[in-house]
Amino acid sequence: MDLHINGRPHAVEAEPDMPLLWALRDLLGLTGTKFGCGVAACGACTVRVEGQPVRSCATPLASVAGKKIQTIEALGAPGKPHPLQAAWIAEQVPQCGYCQSGMLMAAAALLEKTPKPTDAQIDEAITNLCRCGTYQRVRVAIKRAAGIKA
Fold first, then answer.
1. Among 3.90.1150.10, 1.10.150.120, 1.10.10.10, 3.40.190.80, what is the CATH number of 83-146?
2. Which helix (H) or strand (E) holds 69?
């Protein structure tokens, strides 16, 4: 199966119903995307497909073949973090950090679609679960990245 991940083509030998998450982690070694619940509820596995946030644990490979997939590994670059990553650090968002790659991918999709989101738009877009409860800091960091005074 041909996948286009982080700007590069990848030929993957896998069943078409294999979840994207397992192809990313186990076949391609892209371990920034995390397994959380396995039923698309928590969002730890969020990646972007054609710019849209997608829960990779419940996304079969066949449904993303040939589409542009972005993982957390391609959100920023060494020495040049994405504005969201810089805001996450400035606002000290993570505690345990497990959910953060999925949160960042969902937030990146939001800002691409809605560059200056309201609180309601942030709440609607960020449905990822955080066991540490850092939702207020997530909102402030998204606003910082968007250039909105919180």
1. 1.10.150.120
2. strand 68-70
